[in-house]
């Protein structure tokens, strides 16, 4: 809290001092077309300033290179790992569907075919019995009804 007031006074004064120095360096009549006044007075410092204090070269060699490397690592990781993990559920579902299809063909269909075969043979037996003389069938029905009546009377 104690530093706020001095900072509020110091920084605007430093900004005004910088503007005043620039106005003095670049005042009308002082500036030549060929050379910058700062370049005439401070050649080695001006070269560093003109090169951006070599910040761009340093930034390219460190941050941009590291970002590019990490981007390539992330892209490779994405192609190899995440893509494989995304394909894993698909492969599992395909495997389970193949297993279910095999179970359906070998177990369920064969059992169904056996039941149908039994029903066909039972139907064929009923069909053969139906083609016999109607008197034989009616005699069988009558005897069955008589047997039921006798059992009912017994009780």
Describe this structure in words.
With 155 residues, this protein is mainly alpha-helical. It has a domain at 14-50. It is 85% helix and 0% strand. It is built from five helices and no strands. The chain has helices at residues 4-25, 37-41, 43-50, 55-130, 134-154. The radius of gyration is 51 Å and the shape is rod-shaped. It starts with a helix and ends with a helix. The mean pLDDT is 83.
- What's the gyration radius in Å? 51 Å
Q: Kindly, what is the distance between the CA atoms of the first and last residues, rounded to a whole number of angstroms?
A: 112 Å
Q: Total strand count, please?
A: 0
Percentage of helical residues? Answer: over 70%
* Largest sheet: number of strands, sense, barrel closure: none
Decide which structural class fits the backbone: mainly alpha
The average pLDDT is 83
By DSSP (H or I, 4+ residues per run), the number of helices equals 5
Overall morphology: rod-shaped
Low-confidence stretches: none
Reading the helices and strands in chain order gives: HHHHH
Q: What share of residues are in beta strands?
A: under 5%
């Amino acid at each position: 809290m104690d530093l706020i007031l001095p900072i509020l006074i110091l920084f605007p004064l430093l900004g005004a001092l910088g503007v005043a120095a620039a106005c003095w360096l670049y005042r009308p009549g002082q500036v030549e077309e060929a050379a910058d006044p700062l370049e005439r007075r401070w050649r080695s410092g001006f070269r560093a300033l003109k090169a951006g204090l070599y910040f761009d070269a340093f930034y390219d060699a460190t941050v941009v290179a590291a970002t590019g490397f990490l981007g390539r690592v992330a892209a490779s990781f994405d192609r190899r790992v995440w893509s494989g993990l995304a394909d894993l559920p698909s492969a599992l579902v395909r495997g389970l569907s193949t297993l279910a299809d095999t179970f359906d063909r070998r177990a369920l269909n064969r059992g169904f075919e056996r039941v149908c075969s039994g029903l066909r043979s039972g139907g064929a037996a009923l069909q053969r019995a139906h083609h016999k003389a109607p008197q034989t069938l009616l005699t069988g029905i009558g005897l069955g009804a008589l047997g039921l009546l006798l059992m009912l009377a017994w009780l």
